């Protein structure tokens, strides 16, 4: 009997988890889940797309650092509701992905750690970063994260349809340099191809409206947040930015009623000439252009938003790693987080294959990065990409409001002055109650 | 004698034996676990919500007590007032439809035939699906770019209608989705009630040569009137809490046409980090549900008494 009890005790002990004395590093990120395809991949160069490359980088880090156990929390984009709830319940991850536009909200409440000393310790100098990347992490002269990339909306072009429309010269797309030229070229495109010039994800989707509005407002030297605590949208520049897209909408020069997924699928099957979407789609569309069949086969180009007004600028944001404040984080866990940031920084080139703009000026100037498809055309973003001023808080809900009101104006649900007045009132209501 | 009886009876009525009193307290112990859960999970959060609605703060702390300022701000907020209108519109679109269609289905399927059993299962099946699945299915129906209705429209030579992108049609589209999703519960409740109606009443009606319509009006509907009230109250409470369908199908758009109060509460509390303001909106919603459900209950009770 005693032997049986001993045997059972041994069996029970064997069922328990093995002792793991590795340091646990909890990384929380968006960019999607692709464990089925990349769960065991450590060859970063072989990975493709945001999810694949991020997963491979984390796998490789864990493989090269056997003393660290990485717990990867993959959140549904953008994951801030979950993060906020975690921070409120003292369940902070060690590192988390965060848009530059959101950092100030968490920083203002003391929810993330300053990282000046940490970055210096692992040899990363903010001075070597692009202006947009540095601005994304800098508040009141202090650094609050490690930039992953800068993204901006781009003009993804179906060159096959552009050729048919007579809008290719010297192998390059002919782009407008004024609103009038844009309308003229779009009408020429529509007349010769029978398709709308633009493809846009405009249904159940507001981010695209916001990016277009901010970009063309900035191009007119508009400053909607000259005072970060008070928005000013009732300006001629803001009205002009909406008028341009309303004109495009009214003339049927864009696809309508497509949601984001339908717009991506539509562009891939040749629904229109220019897809207005961000840097993250460069890799996918380039892959489609390399396929033997398909509307983009052998005919894809991508460029920053053309300068239609006084200033060459594109609204931008970016992804960053930040470290949530956690008084219970041990020195070993802190050290593991810094080792991961240093590792990620060493693989910045791999991440740049996603299509996002690298954060290091030296990389943008490097022949290696320039040799990637279309990067020469996108390099100008290093100086023309501009986020909103860092002092503007609640940028995430503000972007939604700006998108909602822009969509209402462009579709004709509201007159432009009413939409701008409503936009200003709603945004200022948020800023007034910070 | 006339005065003696009350003196003899009174002690019995006002002072039960010690054993019975002890048994009464012992019985109360049976409800204690539920009572404790009710207080902890309903009463305390409700009280905390009411307190939060008088504060300014976020999930990380209360910054200040502001009294009724959040409520004043709410009733001057055009977006909130729009969400109140949207929510009422949605309740008007769905509750009568759910009640009447549920009753109709129950009347048709209240038979032991095999086909009725199969149809009952089919009609109830949608209820077990999650809101994510339901909205995904119906988005594929409503999409103007390759959706089911668009394909049918194009086959008939018509231009597809962008139901979810049209301020006039988006809420009716969400209502249709909701009715399809939620019809199982009212149908089952009505079926249960119909099966409780005594057969003898129908036999008597048949002997009196009562027609189907007369039988329905004079026997069936009066017999299930309490269930009718129950279904209406349940549906009012459920449909006032609309959230998942617009969140997943329209994000509250176009032009705020489908933003309900709960979506407003979520966006205000989680996206804008204004917990006190969101809690105030939640109190308004609570009051609206309470008033609507109680009004229905009182009206139905008075009719029953008459």
TrEMBL record, chain A:
Q: Which Gene3D superfamilies match?
A: Periplasmic binding protein-like II
Q: Which InterPro entries match?
A: Bact_solute-bd_prot1 (IPR050490), SBP (IPR006059)
Organism name: Sphingomonas gilva
Q: Which UniProt keywords apply?
A: Signal
UniProt family annotation: Belongs to the bacterial solute-binding protein 1 family.
Predominant place of localization? periplasm
- A Pfam family cross-referenced in the UniProt record is SBP_bac_1
Signal sequence, start to end: 1-18
Tell me where in or outside the cell this protein is found.
Answer: Periplasm
List the GO terms this entry assigns under cellular component, sorted alphabetically.
Answer: periplasmic space
Keyword Signal included in the entry's annotation: yes
Q: Which SUPFAM superfamilies match?
A: Periplasmic binding protein-like II
| The name this protein goes by in its record | Extracellular solute-binding protein
Transcription regulation as a keyword of this entry, yes or no, is no
Automatic annotation (TrEMBL), chain B:
Q: Where in the cell? A: Cell membrane
PROSITE patterns this protein is in?
Answer: ABC_TM1 (PS50928)
Stored Pfam families: BPD_transp_1
Give the species this sequence originates from: Sphingomonas gilva
Describe the location of the ABC transmembrane type-1 domain by residue ranges.
Answer: 84-296
Span list, region Disordered: 1-20
In the record, biological process GO terms are: transmembrane transport
Segments forming a coiled coil: none
The annotated topology with respect to the bilayer is: Multi-pass membrane protein
Give the family, as the similarity comment puts it: Belongs to the binding-protein-dependent transport system permease family.
What SUPFAM superfamilies does this protein's entry cite?
MetI-like
Give a Gene Ontology cellular component term annotated to this protein: plasma membrane
Is the keyword Cell membrane in the record? yes
Upper taxonomic classification of the species?
Bacteria, Pseudomonadati, Pseudomonadota, Alphaproteobacteria, Sphingomonadales
Q: Which residue positions does the secretion signal occupy?
A: none
**What parts of the sequence cross the membrane?**
28-52, 88-109, 121-141, 169-194, 223-243, 277-300
User: What keywords sit in the KW lines?
Assistant: Cell membrane, Membrane, Transmembrane, Transmembrane helix, Transport
Annotated protein name in UniProt: Sugar ABC transporter permease
